[in-house]
Structure formats: C-alpha cells, structure tokens
C-alpha cells in the first residue's frame, strides 16, 4: 500500500526506524520496511544476500513486529534466521557470525510505548540514511513491489552462548583478582546477556532489575540521564562492590560507576580501552568524536597511536573505523566500537576491558581512572531556541576576540586555549542547541557554561 511521505519520514530516521506502536508503527508498516530491506540487500551486487537474521528486545510489541518483519523478508524470497531475545550487539554478532544482513527490534532507551528497527548489512555494517534508509523510505512511500518467486523459509538459532564465548575470547579475565560487580540492567536486555557473558569469570554479580520488562517499572533504561544511575550508585555504596555497570534498554551502551558510587566519564573509559588496544597493536588508529575529552587524543598521541577525530554519531564513527582500520573508537555517549567486533559497538566488550584493567592491579577503580581524567567537563546541556543558526553566530560573535580556533566539523567547536573549549551543535530533530564544555577546573567549566548560555538563552 502507498503511504504518505510525512508519515514514513516521521518513522524512518537518520540511523534507524522508530515510533509509537499502534499510532505510528504497526505490523503492516514493518512488513513493507522488511520487503524493501530484503530487496535492497538481495539485489545489491556487492552482497547478493540470501538470508536475514532477526533479533528483538523485551518490549511486549517486539515479538509480533519481528514476526511481521520475517514475513516481509520471506515474501521477497530470502530466508530468515530468528535469534529471539537479544541485545543489539548480540544481533551485530549474529550478523557477523552468519555473514548476513540483520534487523534488531528495539527502541533502545525510549519509553515502553515506542519500538523500532536497527538495520545492518552483512558483517554488522550500518544502514543509515545514505546507505539504504532513504531508498527504503522512498519505496515504502511508493509501494513495495512484490517478488513473484517462491517464499523464503524461517529457522531459529540461539547464538547467546556463542556471543558470550566470543566476547570472553576478546578480553582475558582468567587471571584477574576476584571482583564484586553491581549491575543495573534497567529491566532491559543486560538482564539477558550479563549472566551468559559473566558465567565462569572470577566475578560476583550484584544484580539490579534483571527481570526483562519492557514497561521499565523501576526507572528508564537510559543511564545517560543521571537520575537513572541513582539506584546503582546506592547499591554500590551499600554492598561495597568494586564497581557498578549500567546498561541501556538494548544493552549496547554501558556506563560505569566506581567503588565510591561516582560515575566514570565515558571519555575516561575510552582512554583506558584505547591504552589497552594500543598495547596490543602499537601505532594503531583510535577514533574519538569531537566532544570526547581532549584527554583521549592526548593520551593516544603520547602512546604512539593515531587519534582520529570525527563527528558525533555511530554512522560517522563506523565509516572512519572502516576507512582508517582503527582498532577502537569511543563516544561521549558510552558507545564503544571495536575492529575485532566487525567495527560495531558493544557496551559489554567495553565493560570486560574495564573489569580486566581493574582486576589486573590492586588499586580501586577511582584511583585507576584518575589517570585518564585530565579535565573537568559539563556534560551535554540542551537549550530550546527558535533559531539555532542565529544563536550560534551570536555566541561566535561574543567570543570573537578570545577565540584561538574555530572549526565547523559538527556544529561549532571553539578553542579558547589552555585546555578550555566548547562545542555548540544543533539537534537534527528538535529545536535544541546542545552545549558541551571542557576546561582544566570545574570552576572554569561553570564560568564558561554560564557565559555561553547567557548568549544562547538571551
């Protein structure tokens, strides 16, 4: 059936498909997306895919939507492998293991009424606006052509054990000291994957909210929001755990809390993992996005590696990973990308690196991570504005006589010298300006934030 451009583009976004189930997203729409995706990967001369792997999270709508997607794929003559409940990085693993395109049903950290689809080509290569989603949207609007040939088949395959074994094979934890680890799964897919991955390791797990429940009865599965870390922080302090780990809804991102209950910056985790990867492959390239702490490229350079700066967003990171052959990439949002994981992101693999680094020595995590934290940072601060471009230019004018350097790789990054800088980026989907500030001291950060926001919010 033909659909309006407005309704389709409201669902098919820059990186994935996402919307409110029943109001925007339904089985018929999913079948159309599946049919178009199947045509895309089937007719691609570089891949000629013959099957698609499908996984889904714990949301109540996910099994039905995953089944509808399978119907759309098989109607185009391709076979389907259903892996059932999975984290997003488990789906990426299956795409790499089976060397076929994949579809993951999840809305990540969004509320329960949402669902969506993350698509990838064989080997977990991302499908974004410029690599297939625009084509799919256009075809769904026009009406997806039928196949006319025989339908494909559907089989089931459990890859959780292989996924867990693969990750344990990437990071050796066999010789570490015993650690007590508090884990907040947020009723998301971490409750499914953590027990499998941690099985047999010298770890005592303190589980929080491991019950799979897509209504998120305890808190949102979005650890980027500090309020959703409160339970984990309290649990770490109460139990004397060596550290805490918090996963988002589809468990592809992992946030870390030290033994004091204080959050560890994803930039510090990026620096730590970069050091470990460079120890294995000296001189390798490391990707970091432009609002990751400057401590990351500084450390990479000091260790003899090549720091590669990129825009914010997984499609840019993955593109740079492929072009540079980088061994690792990290973002401020706690997405961590590994060449040995098909260039895809895995919060679980990053967590294993943190556990290994902590367990290989005797310091507490707070002391260990202090060596990777050189600056104070604001975190991302959003402001609602009527004209993002006009407000951005007003900020640049206000700092014109103090600016050491300005670049426009992604929004504007203003370098004020002596370790102080800020980035101002417009949201792609909302009337927001996003501000990130870094300086040598917290006082310096606070003063710079106040000065920029006085102009942004004038």
Write up what this structure looks like:
- This protein has helices at residues 5-11, 27-43, 62-74, 88-98, 133-142, 160-170, 190-198, 230-239, 266-280, 295-302, 314-324, 347-359, 365-370, 388-398, 442-456; strands spanning 17-20, 51-56, 79-85, 102-105, 114-121, 125-126, 154-156, 179-184, 203-208, 243-247, 254-257, 263-264, 285-289, 306-310, 328-330, 336-338, 376-377, 381-384, 405-407, 412-417, 420-426, 432-439.
- Strands 1, 2, 3, 4, 5, 6 and 7 form a 7-stranded mixed β-sheet that branches. Strands 17, 18, 19, 20, 21 and 22 form a 6-stranded antiparallel β-sheet that branches.
- The mean pLDDT is 95.
- The chain has 4 domains: 5-158, Alpha-D-Glucose-1,6-Bisphosphate, Chain A, domain 3, CATH 3.40.120.10; 162-260, Alpha-D-Glucose-1,6-Bisphosphate, subunit A, domain 3 (Alpha-D-Glucose-1,6-Bisphosphate, Chain A, domain 3); 266-370, Alpha-D-Glucose-1,6-Bisphosphate, Chain A, domain 3 (3-Layer(aba) Sandwich); 376-456, TATA-Binding Protein.
- Helices cover 36% and strands 22% of the residues.
- It is an alpha/beta fold.
């Amino acid at each position: 059936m033909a659909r309006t451009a407005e309704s389709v583009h409201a669902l098919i976004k820059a990186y994935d498909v996402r919307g409110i189930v029943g109001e925007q997203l339904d089985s018929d729409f999913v079948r159309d997306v599946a049919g178009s995706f199947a045509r895309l990967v089937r007719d691609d001369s570089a891949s000629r895919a013959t099957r698609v792997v499908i996984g889904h999270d714990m949301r109540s709508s996910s099994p039905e939507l995953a089944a509808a997607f399978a119907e759309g794929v098989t109607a185009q003559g391709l076979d389907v492998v259903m892996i059932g409940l999975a984290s997003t990085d488990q789906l990426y693993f299956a795409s790499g293991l089976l060397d076929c395109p994949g579809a993951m049903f999840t809305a990540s950290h969004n509320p329960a009424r949402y669902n969506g689809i993350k698509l990838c080509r064989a080997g977990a290569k991302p499908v974004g606006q410029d690599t297939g989603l625009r084509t799919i949207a256009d075809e769904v609007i026009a009406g997806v052509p039928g196949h006319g040939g025989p339908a494909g088949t559907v089989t089931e395959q459990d890859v959780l054990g292989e996924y867990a074994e693969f990750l344990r094979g990437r990071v050796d934890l066999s010789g570490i000291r015993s650690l007590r680890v508090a884990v907040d799964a947020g009723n998301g897919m971490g409750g499914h994957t953590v027990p499998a991955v941690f099985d047999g390791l010298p770890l005592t797990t303190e589980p929080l909210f491991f019950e799979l429940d897509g209504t998120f009865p305890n808190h949102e599965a979005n650890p980027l929001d500090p309020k959703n870390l409160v339970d984990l922080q309290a649990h770490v302090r109460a139990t004397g755990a060596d550290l805490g780990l918090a996963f988002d809804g589809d468990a592809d991102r992992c946030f870390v809390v030290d033994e004091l209950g204080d959050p560890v910056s994803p930039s510090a985790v990026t620096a730590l993992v970069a050091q470990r990867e460079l120890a294995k492959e000296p001189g390798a390239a490391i990707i970091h996005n432009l609002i990751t702490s400057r401590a990351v490229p500084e450390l990479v350079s000091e260790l003899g590696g090549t720091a590669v700066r990129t825009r914010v967003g997984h499609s840019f990171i993955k593109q740079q990973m492929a072009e540079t052959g980088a061994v690792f990439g990290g973002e401020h949002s706690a997405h961590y990308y590994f060449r040995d994981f098909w260039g895809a992101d895995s919060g679980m693999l990053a967590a294993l690196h943190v556990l290994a680094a902590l367990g290989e020595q005797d310091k507490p995590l707070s002391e260990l991570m202090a060596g990777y934290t050189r600056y104070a940072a604001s975190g991302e601060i959003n402001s609602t504005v009527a004209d993002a471009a006009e407000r951005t230019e007003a900020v640049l004018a206000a700092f014109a006589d103090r600016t050491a350097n300005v670049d426009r790789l992604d929004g504007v990054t203003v370098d004020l010298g002596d370790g102080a800088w800020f980035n101002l980026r417009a949201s792609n989907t909302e009337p927001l300006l996003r501000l990130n500030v870094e300086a040598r001291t917290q006082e310096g950060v606070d003063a710079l934030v106040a000065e920029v926001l006085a102009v942004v919010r004038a």
